Amino acid sequence: MMYKNLLYELKEGIAYITVNKPKSLNALNNEVLDDLYAAFTAVNNDPEVKIVILTGEGKAFVAGADISEMVGLSTLEGRDMMIKGQSVFNMIETLDKPVIAAINGFALGGGCELAMACDIRIASEKAKFGQPEVNLGIIPGFGGTQRLPRLVGKGMGKYLIMTAEMIDAQEAYRIGLVERIVPAEELMGTAEKVAKTIMAKAPIAIKAAKLAINNGISLDVKTGVAYEAEIFVAPFCAEDRVEGMTAFLEKRPAKFQNK
Description:
Layout: E1 6-11, E2 14-19, H1 30-45, E3 51-56, E4 60-62, H2 67-70, H3 75-94, E5 99-103, E6 106-108, H4 110-117, E7 120-124, E8 128-130, H5 144-152, H6 154-163, E9 167-168, H7 169-174, E10 180-182, H8 187-199, H9 203-216, H10 221-237, H11 239-249
Parallel strand pairs: 2-3, 3-5, 4-6, 5-7, 6-8, 7-10
Antiparallel strand pairs: 1-2, 8-9
Helix pairs in contact: 1-3, 3-4, 4-5, 5-6, 9-10
């Protein structure tokens, strides 16, 4: 697959998607959003892809939206761009396959929002995070006002958005914005190790778990637990459930078939 603003590689079931505009610190504009939409649509439709690792080329993951493009937009054009970004990020969040963000550097504004749309965030020690939109007279528009408080709590979410403070990887880990921090040279290797660990599990169970968490988290606990019970049925009916339980009892690695 060829994209103007992305690098794409499929290797051993892992799709590597790299935002590739290092001169602009991988800034998001309409073209990049279009490429991301196309790439993740292709990934979703490709049975050879089991999991995705998303990263950035150079010293940034994604440093934010392309302000040089945004400054000239009308109100309606600006709203259209936000809706486009939201639709792309929503697609990433609800993708049937897990998505790991390997955050190699700056993840600011739309870049932080992109990382938050992924399932798991692994950060280099050099990574920086922030939602600086209020410095520009706007607010986060790609889902930041909703995903950030859900990850770090309402108070911390308000603090980061209202102060526009940039934080380092250690602080991001402390508040729950990322799941792991590793040295820069170990970032992709760690992301691949996590990806392969997930790929070794029953795919139908991974898909069901993601669906139950994503859709249940906004519900009250009682309703969420009831929803979990409904989602539980699909993997329980699958052959992989029998294989997984039998392998456990026989003290051997499971050989899942639904891949």
